[in-house]
Amino acid sequence: MTGAQERAWRELWPALGIENGEEPLDFAVAFGRDAPVVLEIGFGNGESLVALATTHAERNYLGLEVHPPGVGHLLLCCEAAQLRNVRVICEDAVQVLQRRMPDASLDEVLLYFPDPWPKKRHHKRRIVQPPFVELVARKLKPGGVFRMATDWQPYAEHMLATAGSCRELTNESATGDFVERPDSRPVTRFERRGQRLGHGVWDLAFRRRSE
């Protein structure tokens, strides 16, 4: 970590970080207010999360990231933007979803550009697997949305098939496959670099059934 990121952990984590634990989170307590909650899994350096939290101050944003330097960078960005609607957990996403997220509590779950693990022998390491999708669906409120994006077409097709097989979710695409990039999803430096290299990007959106 850089010196600035280390300072962020010392000075900013106590206010914005959520320590590991076993008890389900009370979002109203964690954020100091009752508001819609959006969870971003694997936020990297936090670029998209900060942009969303800045644009939508009426929402609470919870970020999950296992890499401390990325968490430190996000904390610094929150300090610079004076954001009060962001909280951070530095722990494995599946464990947090299982232990800390109450069922039917999240308005949106965001998973943008996860590692595609392109080699076939590594496909089992991909985060998007049937048990994970079913877990996300259970944590969404009825009507809540699971949004994903990737620049790796085979992974996009895997995401589509996996989420499409979850009975609790319905595809928001009118054509039953991919959706246009939502205006709500910021274009990150990572994505802009991919566009310059001619990479495609595939967006998906699945809504939890209301019944």
Describe this structure as you would to a colleague.
- This protein is α/β, with parallel strands linked by helices and 211 residues long.
- The chain has a single domain, classed as Rossmann fold.
- The chain is 37% helix and 20% strand.
- The chain is built from 9 helices and 7 strands.
- It has a 7-stranded mixed beta sheet with strand order 3-2-1-4-5-7-6, sandwiched between helices.
- Helix 5 links the parallel strand 2 and strand 3.
- Helix 1 crosses helix 5 and helix 4 packs parallel to helix 5.
- It is globular, with a radius of gyration of 17 Å.
- The N and C termini lie far apart (46 Å).
- The mean pLDDT is 94.
By CATH, the superfamily comes out as Vaccinia Virus protein VP39
Structure annotation, total helices: 9
Order of helices and strands: HHHEHEHEHEHEHEHE
How does the major sheet shape up? 7 strands, mixed
Radius of gyration: 17 Å
Total domain modules: 1
In the sheet with the most strands, the strands line up as 3-2-1-4-5-7-6
Q: Percentage of helical residues?
A: 25-40%
State which percent range the strand residues make up.
15-25%
- Secondary structure class reads alpha/beta
CATH architecture: 3-Layer(aba) Sandwich
Uncertain stretches? none
CATH class: Alpha Beta
**What is the CA–CA distance across the termini?**
46 Å
Total strand segments: 7
Name the shape in a single word: globular
Q: Give the quaternary arrangement of the chains.
A: single chain
Mean pLDDT rating? 94
CATH topology: Rossmann fold
